[in-house]
UniProtKB/TrEMBL annotation:
Domain NADP-dependent oxidoreductase: 22-219
Pfam families attached to this UniProt entry: Aldo_ket_red (PF00248)
Official protein name in the record: Predicted oxidoreductase
InterPro entries in the record: AKR2_Oxidoreductase, NAD(P)_OxRdtase_dom_sf, NADP_OxRdtase_dom
Length: 270
């Protein structure tokens, strides 16, 4: 009996022209183990384990991979790991947040944005990144209205260095503002937190892309006995027509297969 996969469930990423799997692989755990909010500790996998995880994801029909400069060594590890298979992946990276010496700091200037994207292209060993999102510090509207980051991303898109851009924010107001010009908003949406739902509604009405972060509440979810939290979480997400894909940052092969099987079952229902 073959495992369920997501190969038949790829969907448009808004109006970017890209098609993505409904689950994306988050890669913070490939590069950073400090200052991350997970209920259990973990060890960053070595290259062989990371290679096997990516191969498994691909076999299960996942083609979306999410990384960021703030994820420690994630981007520079992915470059070599994806050699020879770059065209099979849709890569999402970020700008704005840097993580050094155990601390985050933020820079949303035009100069830093361009420098950051050029550095990501080198690290990822690629000539384009499909989607670059602004890694917000929470001051969503101030970033969008007062900084040079969005104009610079629009210019990088015109130059073909990125194929789409958007915003990973913390507020509904920020997400809505970001979608006026941008292609995508990454929002928190799960069984515990639904304040950004208006962003999903707007995206569904205007053909914009939504990626969901913290879909499983970063592993913190608590439900009644006998309720599968993974299934309940994904049922909530995929009931909304605005959701393109949920980014889940697992490095556990069993969890990955279970997540894929759950989503395939939900999306395969008549």
């Amino acid at each position: 009996m073959s495992l369920p996969t997501l190969h038949d469930h790829h969907r448009p990423l808004g109006s970017t022209g890209l098609r993505v799997s409904p689950l994306g692989l988050g890669t913070v755990k490939l590069g950073r183990d400090q200052g991350v909010k997970y209920p259990n500790g973990f060890t960053i996998p070595d290259d062989q384990a990371a290679h096997l995880l990516l191969a498994q994801a691909r076999e299960l029909g996942i083609n979306l991979i999410d990384t960021a400069p703030a994820y420690g060594r994630s981007e520079e590890r992915l470059g070599p790991l994806l050699r020879g298979q770059r065209d099979q992946w849709v890569i999402v990276s970020k700008v704005g947040e840097e993580f050094e010496n155990g601390q985050s700091h933020f820079d949303f200037s035009a100069a830093h944005t361009r420098r950051s994207v050029e550095r990501s292209l080198k690290r990822l060993e690629t000539d384009r990144i499909e989607l670059v999102l602004v890694h917000s510090d929470g001051n969503d509207l101030a970033i969008l209205e007062q900084e040079g980051v969005y104009e610079t991303l629009a210019a990088l898109k015109r130059e073909g260095k990125i194929l789409g851009y958007g915003f990973s924010g913390k507020t509904a107001a920020g997400g809505l503002k970001a979608l006026e010009q941008g292609d995508c908003a990454m929002v928190t949406y799960n069984l515990n937190e639904q304040a950004e739902r208006p962003v999903l509604d707007y995206a569904a009405e205007h053909g914009k892309a939504i990626l969901v972060k913290k879909a499983l509440a970063s592993g913190h979810i608590c439900l009644a006995p006998g309720v599968d939290p993974v299934q309940a979480s994904f049922e909530l997400l995929f009931a909304h027509p605005g959701v393109c894909s949920a980014i889940v940052g697992t490095i556990n092969p069993v969890h990955l297969a279970h997540n894929v099987a759950t989503v395939a079952r939900i999306l395969g229902r008549p």
